[in-house]
Design brief:
This protein has 521 residues and is of the alpha/beta class. The chain has 2 domains: 403 residues, 3-Layer(aba) Sandwich (Alkaline Phosphatase, subunit A); 89 residues, no CATH class. The protein contains 13 helices and 19 strands. The strands form 6 sheets. A 7-stranded mixed sheet has the order 3-7-1-9-12-2-13, sandwiched between helices. The protein has a 4-stranded antiparallel sheet with strand order 16-17-18-19, with no helix packed on it. A hairpin with a 4-residue loop joins strand 18 and strand 19. Helix 1 crosses helix 9 and helix 6 runs parallel beside helix 9.
């Protein structure tokens, strides 16, 4: 009779949340979820761009196995007929439902969000999604633009709403249908914000007076940053308001006041998202399913807010790869809940001061590729087997070890012993998160952020442990998907303790034998 699953996936959300220690943000509803959850403070995506990351964690395979580094191929045709997490739940008797942006739409999910393999019903997309990039942002001159910074009056928007508001309404409707029909469900809800454009109801700006907004702690391009590692944030440059600033490519900094406005709008978009999450969780209480539903909250990757002179995702830095990740498991992360007790009352970010702390916290380094096996185990399903070295021919296996053991251990924050019985999770007894990013050239190009497969010449393989991030940029052949670690174009090494913001690359003054052995592991 297993648990239901509510899987909340947010687009481009880095962990600027109260429950992650951010002092500025107003995120009371996500913080309330955290107060009933185990929160992972060291969770990382496998590639910092939407489609590759989502296909990776939804199949439980790394990008080198999905062979998706861009947006233009469907893994079942191009790599192997891999089962997905929702497909596995569906095959195990769950009603699987997709609302909003779960799979990346388009060819990378066969133009159907992988329906009917992954979902019991055709996925829901909000009708106003198609206006996302239209000119809906009012400029100072009263005209409409396609801006990056886009606070709006919702009543003036097409259909008088926004995509994430529609997704919340549909998800709540489905929760009620599931309750009425007494169906066990796996409901994935994909929110768009804070993905660009930063388009949100304008009242959320009030939460963040501009004078409270600082620049990034390190808004300059680090002196020893290899040029291949830099992402030139081309997508941002294409927005009308940024274009008007005439910034030089690739390193020209944005003016300080504009940087502050981007940061302000990102925060505002996060609070708008928090309201949607709050309404959704409140509805889970309303239908009386909070005591029988696992809730997972995460993002597909992070987003730079001016750190290293960079914006957007498209890099191997923590700001682009690190994601929020929390698991609410009734009876496991919280004491069992009596029927009808409210766990997730809606909290208004305009009036509620959040002082809630995570129920449990784990510092363990974990990866999104572990989601598949972890959710299977939490739901009491058989955990898919670990993939062998090459697994293109195997439909059901996973390259991410379940992290349920860390959920149990997180009660006491001091986790002494390092349980390790698997090559993926642990290299020399130390949990490692692997991320990667492709580049078309050694220097920033107009397509450096999103090179098409045929244009990839270099792959940056990055390894994050609790102590350091080590990245090698190596020659890559897109015709046979091979990386040549004999041909290293550049390297990066940052020590977490002395350089938490990753500004001082010490690769050139370090001997590499130890790190190289681990990354080739």
């Amino acid at each position: 009779d297993g648990m239901n699953v509510l899987f909340i996936i947010v687009d481009d959300l880095r962990p600027i949340l109260g429950c992650y220690g951010d002092k500025l943000v107003k995120s009371p509803n996500i913080d309330q979820l955290a107060s009933q959850s185990v929160v992972f403070s060291n969770a990382y995506a496998q590639q910092a761009v939407c489609a590759p990351s989502r296909v990776s964690f939804l199949t439980g395979r790394r990008p080198d196995t999905t062979r998706l580094y861009d947006f233009y191929s469907y893994w079942r045709v191009h790599a192997g007929n891999y089962s997905t997490m929702p497909q596995y739940f569906k095959e195990n008797g769950y009603m699987t439902l997709s609302v909003g942006k779960v799979f990346h739409p388009g060819v990378s999910s066969n133009y159907t969000d992988d329906y009917p393999y992954s979902w019991s019903l055709p996925p829901f997309h909000p009708s106003t999604e198609k206006y996302e990039n239209d000119k809906t942002c009012r400029g100072k001159d009263g005209k409409l633009y396609a801006n990056l910074i886009c606070p709006v009056d919702v009543s003036e928007m097409p259909s008088g709403t926004l995509p994430d508001i529609q997704s919340t309404e549909e998800a709540i409707r489905l929760l009620n249908v599931m309750k009425t029909n007494n169906r066990k469900f796996f409901l994935a809800v994909g929110y768009h914000k804070p993905h660009i454009p930063l388009r949100y109801p304008q009242e959320f700006l009030k939460l963040y007076p501009l004078e409270n907004i600082t620049l990034a702690p390190d808004p300059w391009v680090p002196e020893k940053l290899p040029s291949v590692a830099y992402n030139p944030w081309t997508d941002i440059r294409q927005r009308d308001d940024v274009q008007a600033l005439n910034i030089s490519f690739p390193y020209g900094p944005l003016p300080d006041d504009f940087q502050r406005q981007i940061r302000q709008s990102y925060y505002a978009a996060v609070s708008y998202l928090d309201v949607q999450v709050g309404l959704l969780l409140n509805a889970l209480d309303d239908v009386g399913l909070s005591n029988s539903t696992i809730v997972v909250f995460t993002a597909d990757h992070g987003w730079s807010l001016g750190e290293h002179g960079e914006w957007a995702k498209y890099s191997n830095f923590d700001v682009a790869t690190r994601v929020p990740l929390m698991f609410y498991v009734p009876g496991m992360t919280t004491s069992s809940v009596s029927q009808g007790e409210r766990i997730f009352p809606y909290l208004d970010p305009f009036s509620h001061v959040s002082d809630l702390v995570p129920h449990g916290q784990s510092e363990k380094v974990v990866e999104l590729v572990s989601l598949f096996s972890t959710l299977a185990e939490l739901a009491g399903l058989q955990v898919p087997p670990v993939c062998p070295e090459t697994s293109f021919h195997i439909a059901l296996c996973t390259e991410g070890e379940s992290i349920v053991q860390y959920l149990n251990a997180s009660e006491n924050v001091e986790e002494e012993k390092n349980e390790c019985d698997d090559t993926y999770r642990c290299v020399n007894e130390e949990p490692v998160a692997f991320s990667q990013y492709p580049r078309p050239a050694d220097t920033p190009q107009w397509n450096s952020d999103k090179p098409k497969l045929k244009d990839i010449r270099i792959m940056g393989y990055s390894m994050r442990t609790v102590h350091y991030r080590y990245t090698l940029w190596v020659q890559f052949n897109p015709n046979n998907f091979s990386a040549n670690f004999e041909d290293v174009h550049a390297g990066e090494l940052y020590m977490v303790e002395t350089d938490p913001n990753q500004d001082y690359n010490i690769y050139n003054n370090t001997s590499h034998g130890y790190f190289l052995k681990k990354i080739l592991g």
